[in-house]
């Protein structure tokens, strides 16, 4: 909380005329209360809707999406093992053979 004394820092012995100081004190507190009330009325409902939707989405994600992603990851692991075996057994030897064949090609240019 922000108090009147924290904002205006009136030392105890140097207050204005009692009526002015009291009026400034009441004006400050009334304005602070009114602004808070106005902002609460204007922002409370929209912000609570946004936060409610945000927490609902987070809860939905944790309850439904996370297990689905785990299952997908488990299935992809099996597919990854299968695919890496195919690549190692078929593609690597084929690429190595092609590399060996093409590495022995020598191009000689004809000189005039």
TrEMBL record:
<keyword id="KW-0333">Golgi apparatus</keyword>
<dbReference type="GO" id="GO:0060090">
    <property type="term" value="F:molecular adaptor activity"/>
</dbReference>
<protein>
    <recommendedName>
        <fullName>Caveolin</fullName>
    </recommendedName>
</protein>
<keyword id="KW-0472">Membrane</keyword>
<dbReference type="Pfam" id="PF01146">
    <property type="entry name" value="Caveolin"/>
</dbReference>
<dbReference type="GO" id="GO:0005901">
    <property type="term" value="C:caveola"/>
</dbReference>
<dbReference type="InterPro" id="IPR001612">
    <property type="entry name" value="Caveolin"/>
</dbReference>
<dbReference type="GO" id="GO:0000139">
    <property type="term" value="C:Golgi membrane"/>
</dbReference>
<comment type="similarity">
    <text>Belongs to the caveolin family.</text>
</comment>
<comment type="function">
    <text>May act as a scaffolding protein within caveolar membranes. Interacts directly with G-protein alpha subunits and can functionally regulate their activity.</text>
</comment>
<keyword id="KW-1003">Cell membrane</keyword>
<dbReference type="GO" id="GO:0070836">
    <property type="term" value="P:caveola assembly"/>
</dbReference>
């Amino acid at each position: 909380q922000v108090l009147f004394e924290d904002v205006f820092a009136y030392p105890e012995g140097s207050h204005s005329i009692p009526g002015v100081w009291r009026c400034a004190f009441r004006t400050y507190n009334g304005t602070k209360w009114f602004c808070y009330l106005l902002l609460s009325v204007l922002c409370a409902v929209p912000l609570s809707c946004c936060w409610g939707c945000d927490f609902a989405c987070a809860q939905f994600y944790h309850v439904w999406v996370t297990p689905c992603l785990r299952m997908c990851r488990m299935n992809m692991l099996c597919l990854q093992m299968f695919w890496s075996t195919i690549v190692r057994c078929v593609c690597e030897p084929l690429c190595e053979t092609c590399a060996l064949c093409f590495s022995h090609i020598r191009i000689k240019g004809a000189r005039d």
